[in-house]
Design a protein that fits this description.
The structure is a homodimer.
Chain A lengths: L1 H8 L1 H7 L1 E5 H10 L3 E7 L6 H4 L4 E5 L1 H7 L8 E6 L14 E6 L4 H13 L4 E4 L9 H6 L9 E3 L3 H6 L3 E5 L8 E2 L9 E6 L13 E4 L11 H15 L1 H4 L10
Parallel strand pairs in A: 2-3, 5-6, 5-10, 6-7, 8-10, 8-11, 9-11
Antiparallel strand pairs in A: 1-4, 2-4
Helix pairs in contact in A: 1-2, 6-9
Chain lengths: ~260, ~260
C-alpha cells in the first residue's frame, strides 16, 4: 500500500518502476487489451468484470478505507491497475510525413491530458514532452487523456533541440500577434512538423528557437482559448491538411 | 454566510437573486469592468487591489475559516463577488449571419465552461442552453468559462424548437458515422446556424430533430474527442467560414 501511494504521488517512483496507474474499469480494460497490466487492485465487494480477473497479472482486494485512501479522487472507481508503460520502441519517426505535438512547459495535468487526446485523435505520430512539463504518466494525466497515453508514443526529450535533431520543423503556436505568425488557416502544415504548445500562463517565449509560428485567429478577449483548446484546434487542422484524415476511412465524408 | 452558501450550491437560489459568483481577483476584476458586481467578499488579511474596493458595491471581510468553508475549491483565492447576470437584452439575433452554440444536455460544468469559452473566441452571438444542461451560472462553470459568461449572452430555452422558432438552422454534431453527417471541412457553415453539441456520454440522439448533421473526421478511437474539444474545433471552423474571423482585426493573418 505504501508503494501504491508512492506510485500515485511520486513521479520518480513511477519512472523507476516504469509504470503508470489506470483507474476505473474502462481504462483498466483498455490497459488489459493493450497488454500492459501488471497488477489489479479492487475495492472490497466491488469485484471487477471477469475479463479483468482472468489474466497473467496479480489481483488484490483492498479494504474500502485503504482503497479510498490511496486514490487521488474523492469518489474513486472501484478498480485500478498498475501498468507497464508502452515501450518507446513504437516510436518510429522515419517517414517524412509524420508530425508530432510537443508539450513544452505544460503545468496542468488536465491540459496535458487534452493535448495527448488531441494528438491521438489527429493522428500525430507521438507526443513529445520537455522537462518543464508535468508527468504524462501521473494518474490525473492518464485520466484526462482518456487512455491516449496507451495508444501513442510519449517521448521525453531534454530540450527542443532534440526534436530538431530528428529532422522536424518546429512550429510554435502563439496567442500573441507578433508579426511573424502565420494564420493557421493559411499556413502550409505539410511535411515533417513538430507543433509546439507552451506554458498556460506564459505561452511560448518569443525567443524560443522555433522555425515558424502559427496562430489561430479569434474574436473575444486575448486569452479566450486555453492551451488545451488551442491544441485541439491546431491538431485537427494539421490532421485535415494531411489527406488521410480529411476523409473517413471508407473515403466518404463523415467521422469514422 | 448562509445565503452565500446557498448561492454556491443551489441553482434556484442563484436564479431567484439573478446572480452568479465570480472567484479570484481576475474574474472579480472582469465583473467590475463589466459593471456586474453587487458585493465583494474577501478573506481576512487578503485585502484585494484598490480598484476592487472603490465602487458602488458593498465589501465584506470574512474570517479565514468562514471564507474557506463557503468556497467550493480546496484552495480558494482570497476574494469573490456576488454579481448580477448580464441582461439577455444584449441578445439580438436579428442578422442573418449570426450563429449560436447550443449546449443540449451537457452534464459537466467544466465542459460547459469550455463550450462558453469556445463560443466567445469564435464570435458566436450567444450560447443557448436547454433544460438538461448544468447551470451556466454555477461557480464551477463560471471559472471554467474564464469569464466568458460575462461577455456573451447565455440564453436558456425550453427546447430546441425554441431555437428553430428564432429562424436558426439546427446543425447537430455527432461522433458517429450515421451516413447523414457532413464532413465539417466540406460543410457549408454560412448563414443563420445553431450548432448543437450533446451529452458527454450519449451524444445527441440520432432522432434529434436537427436539420443537418456534421462530424469532425478523426483518427484514433471512437471517443477520442470529448465534447469540449469538439466544441472548440467546430467553433473555430465556423468562425473561419465567416470572413470576420478569417483574418485578425487589422486584416493581416495572425491572431488578434
Amino acid at each position: 500500500v505504501g508503494r501504491l501511494r508512492r506510485l500515485f504521488g511520486d513521479r520518480r517512483a513511477r519512472r523507476e518502476e516504469g509504470v503508470f496507474i489506470a483507474q476505473g474499469e474502462v481504462l483498466v480494460g483498455e490497459a488489459v487489451e493493450a497488454g500492459l497490466v501488471r497488477e489489479i487492485f479492487f475495492r472490497e465487494g466491488q469485484i471487477p468484470s471477469g475479463h479483468l480477473l482472468a489474466g497473467s497479472w496479480v489481483v488484490h482486494e483492498l479494504d474500502g478505507k485503504t482503497f479510498d485512501s490511496v486514490n487521488d479522487t474523492v469518489s474513486p472507481q472501484g478498480c485500478l491497475a498498475v501498468c507497464s508503460r508502452p515501450g518507446e520502441s513504437r516510436w518510429d519517426s522515419g517517414s517524412n510525413e509524420v508530425w508530432v505535438l510537443v508539450a513544452h512547459g505544460i503545468q496542468d495535468p488536465g491540459n496535458l491530458g487534452t493535448i495527448l487526446r488531441s494528438a491521438e485523435a489527429a493522428g500525430a505520430r507521438a507526443v513529445v514532452v520537455t522537462p518543464g512539463t508535468v508527468d504524462p504518466w501521473s494518474p490525473k494525466t492518464v485520466r484526462a487523456s482518456a487512455g491516449a497515453v496507451m495508444h501513442l508514443p510519449v517521448i521525453e526529450v531534454a530540450d527542443l533541440e532534440d526534436v530538431v535533431q530528428l529532422g522536424f520543423v518546429l512550429v510554435g503556436t502563439t496567442s500573441h500577434a507578433n508579426g511573424r505568425s502565420e494564420n493557421i488557416w493559411e499556413a502550409d502544415l505539410s511535411g515533417r512538423l513538430a507543433v509546439v504548445v507552451g506554458n498556460e500562463a506564459r505561452g511560448l517565449s518569443g525567443d524560443e528557437s522555433v522555425h515558424r509560428w502559427i496562430s489561430i485567429p479569434h474574436e473575444g478577449r486575448a486569452e479566450s482559448l486555453n492551451v488545451g483548446m488551442a491544441a485541439s484546434v491546431v491538431s485537427m487542422v494539421v490532421a485535415r491538411s494531411r489527406s488521410v484524415t480529411g476523409m473517413s476511412r471508407d473515403g466518404t465524408p463523415g467521422r469514422d
